[in-house]
């Protein structure tokens, strides 16, 4: 179980252009992308660039963003995922767009599909694989589990370690 | 139980007799396309091999395509250096399908794949670009993936963890009004489905309108399938497809895949185009679509005609015919992006480029920079663009304080003259 604090709540259909604007796409490596998360949302970008221990809620295991349906719609840029994992964010959404969802598995993002989730900024959540409990409101919401194959890749830390081990074991 | 087109393609590519929706398969990939993000893929590809003691070589040098288009010519030092890294990798590995920044063989990746006959019906195509759905126009299962996944395709020649998607059947009948085009049709379909209506699904296009449509129109429709959230769009291979591939120089086998009569569809959507008027996608979502009657008169600062959606010769021709002997409004910047060097040259030979220049248009080199908000046409604060491209998300053309409307080439041309969204002179 992880204890999270909600850093920001988004509505539906948040596009990859909003998460990681196209003008920063020349920057690609996971170590380089975190600084451009939500770059057009100056306040939130500034918050994310604030060192962890200077934020309210630093005592929690992690910070979460909570979103509506179809989070990550649009482009295939995986910077939209690496910029979030690089900021150590857990992303909880009612649903995800397909390419973002696949990229999140491939990069090992903390991603939870929770169709009925309701939360507000500053609220506290307790999260397991199966459910999200909003401690602040006392409500509990079921998650949609990933297929086993996808969960294995995510747990292995993403697709690169998975494929490397297949190479080593000659499982081509 | 019968199978849809994509189910049949995935079964064959995975060496299985059949597949069902939800099965997880590892299909063999026939073409793996990327653009400048190949710099990231190369980094991830080399990372996979770290510590294995194996030499990092791609699985098949003939099945990888790399086309420079997103930031061409290079927008800055980093891009130029990355492009250099990619050139070196292409040379070292011997990757055959490489299109550099050139006036004879360059262009936007999706147009290059179509022009050079790289996409083969009945096969699996992946691309590190969401608009890889474009190539469903050739009867292939073509979809977008991220850079890390592409690095794995380069390693194994297979796509991993592919969940067989549901299929939505879209049946299109009727006859287009003279100024209504495939772009209006796909905007109308997205309006009906919404931006998430086809998430984790394939759109299989059928009906007399599709059968009578040329490749250019089919490419436009499949290009924007992803804007309804679709994994892929697909059209049955027919004589139009075969003729195009043979003219493009493809001499190999053509695997024509038809869906079974009793194929199972998650939904059937019927569309009659006879009453369809030009459609406009309003800010900041592609499904925020209105009939032109309801938005005409909105003033625009920049009009963009081109891109992988509507930058083919047919699109430039429509714009040139409307703009011939006319002038672009003094309040408007009209930017034309032919989709490839070949389109540019042919548009020039037909006199379209001259007509557009005389009208006041600026002819840009083929590329994605403006649509993507990287360079070559950023918007100012509070400005409005009308564009034949495929996305209008907040911040899309480089400014989150600007607005982007999407339309057909004809509407873009009329509007460039009047300075307002319009479809008549």
Question: What is the compact description of this entry?
Answer:
By secondary structure, chain A is α/β, with parallel strands linked by helices. Chain A contains six helices and seven strands.
Structure description:
The complex is a heterodimer of chains A (172) and B (425). In chain A, 27% of the residues lie in helices and 20% in strands. With 172 residues, chain A is α/β, with parallel strands linked by helices. A seven-stranded mixed β-sheet of chain A has the order 4-3-2-1-5-6-7, covered by helices on one side. In chain A, strand 5 (124-127) and strand 6 (131-134) form a beta hairpin. In chain A, helix 3 (79-85) crosses helix 4 (98-107) and helix 4 crosses helix 5 (148-155). By secondary structure, chain B is an alpha/beta fold. Chain B contains 15 helices and 18 strands. Chain B has helices at residues 5-13, 38-49, 77-93, 109-115, 147-156, 182-193, 208-211, 215-223, 239-247, 307-310, 313-323, 341-349, 352-359, 369-372, 409-418, and strands spanning 24-25, 31-34, 64-67, 97-99, 124-127, 141-144, 162-163, 166-173, 201-206, 232-235, 267-272, 279-281, 289-291, 302-306, 333-337, 362-363, 384-387, 403-406. In chain B, helix 6 runs parallel beside helix 8 (215-223) and helix 11 (313-323) crosses helix 13 (352-359). Chain B is globular, with a radius of gyration of 21 Å. Chains A and B meet through helix 4, helix 5 and helix 6 of A and helix 2, helix 3 and helix 5 of B.
Helix content of chain A: 25-40%
What class, by secondary structure content of chain A? Answer: alpha/beta
Query: In which order are the strands of the major sheet of chain B placed?
Result: 4-3-2-5-6
Q: Tell me the helix content of chain B.
A: 25-40%
Biggest interface and its residues per chain?
Answer: A-B, 45 and 56 residues
The overall strand count of chain A is 7
- Which range does the strand content of chain A fall in? 15-25%
- Please give the largest β-sheet of chain A: 7 strands, mixed
| Main sheet: strands, sense, barrel of chain B | 5 strands, parallel
User: Could you list the spans of chain A in which at least 5 consecutive residues all have pLDDT below 50?
Assistant: none
Q: Count every helix of chain B, treating DSSP H or I runs of 4 or more residues as helices.
A: 15
Mean pLDDT over all positions of chain A? 94
Q: How far apart are the termini of chain A?
A: 35 Å
Order of strands in the sheet with most strands of chain A? 4-3-2-1-5-6-7
Over all CA atoms, what is the radius of gyration of chain A? Answer: 16 Å
């Amino acid at each position: 179980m992880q204890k999270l604090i909600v850093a920001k709540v988004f509505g539906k259909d948040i596009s990859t252009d909003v998460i990681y604007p196209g003008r920063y796409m020349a920057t690609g490596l996971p170590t380089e992308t975190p600084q451009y998360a939500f770059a057009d949302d100056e306040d939130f970008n500034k918050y994310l660039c604030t060192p962890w221990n200077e934020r309210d809620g630093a005592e929690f295991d992690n910070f979460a963003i909570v979103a509506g349906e179809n989070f990550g719609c649009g482009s295939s840029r995986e910077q939209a995922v690496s910029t979030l994992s690089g900021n150590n964010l857990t992303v909880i959404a009612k649903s995800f767009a397909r390419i973002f969802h696949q990229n999140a598995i491939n990069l090992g993002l903390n991603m939870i599909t929770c169709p009925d989730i309701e939360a507000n900024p500053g609220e506290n959540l307790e999260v397991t694989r199966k459910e999200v409990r909003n401690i602040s409101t006392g409500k509990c919401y079921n998650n949609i589990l990933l297929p086993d194959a996808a969960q294995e890749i995510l747990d292995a830390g993403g697709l690169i370690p998975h494929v490397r081990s297949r190479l080593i074991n000659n499982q081509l | 139980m019968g199978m849809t087109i994509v189910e049949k393609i995935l079964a064959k590519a995975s060496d299985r007799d059949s597949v069902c929706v939800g099965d997880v398969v590892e299909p063999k990939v026939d073409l793996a396309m990327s653009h400048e993000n190949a710099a990231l893929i190369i980094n991830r590809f080399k990372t996979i091999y770290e510590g294995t003691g194996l030499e990092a070589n791609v699985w098949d040098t003939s099945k990888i395509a790399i086309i420079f288009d997103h930031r061409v010519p290079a927008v800055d030092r980093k891009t130029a250096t990355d492009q250099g890294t990619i050139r070196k990798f292409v040379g070292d590995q011997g990757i055959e399908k490489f299109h550099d920044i050139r006036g004879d063989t360059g262009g936007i990746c999706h147009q290059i794949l179509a022009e050079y006959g790289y996409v083969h019906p009945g096969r699996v195509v992946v691309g590190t670009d969401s608009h890889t759905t474009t190539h469903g126009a050739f009867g292939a299962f073509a979809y977008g993936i991220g850079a890390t996944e592409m690095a794995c395709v380069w390693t194994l020649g297979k796509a991993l963890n592919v969940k067989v998607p549901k299929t939505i059947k879209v049946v299109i009948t009727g006859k287009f009004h003279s100024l209504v085009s495939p772009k209006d049709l796909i905007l109308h379909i997205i309006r009906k489905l919404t931006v998430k209506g086809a998430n984790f699904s394939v759109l299989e296009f059928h009906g007399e309108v599709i059968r009578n449509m040329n490749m250019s129109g089919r490419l436009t429709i499949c290009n924007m399938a992803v804007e309804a959230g679709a994994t892929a769009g697909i059209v049955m291979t027919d004589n139009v497809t075969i003729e195009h591939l043979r003219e493009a120089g493809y001499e190999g086998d053509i695997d024509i895949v038809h869906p079974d009569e009793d194929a199972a569809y998650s939904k059937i959507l019927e569309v009659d185009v006879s009453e369809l008027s030009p459609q406009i996608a309003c800010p900041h979502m592609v499904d925020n679509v209105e009939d032109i009657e309801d938005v005409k008169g909105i003033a625009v600062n920049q009009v963009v005609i081109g891109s992988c959606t509507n930058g083919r010769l047919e699109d430039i021709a429509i714009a040139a015919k409307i703009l011939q002997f006319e002038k672009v409004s003094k309040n408007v910047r009209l930017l034309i992006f032919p989709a490839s060097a070949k389109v540019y040259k042919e548009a020039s030979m037909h006199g379209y480029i001259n007509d557009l220049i005389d009208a006041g248009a600026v002819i840009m080199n083929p590329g994605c920079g403006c649509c993507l908000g990287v360079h070559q046409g950023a918007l100012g604060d509070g400005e409005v663009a009308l564009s034949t491209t495929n996305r209008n998300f907040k911040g899309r053309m480089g400014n989150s304080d600007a607005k982007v409307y999407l339309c057909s080439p004809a509407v873009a041309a009329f509007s460039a003259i009047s300075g307002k969204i319009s479809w008549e002179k």
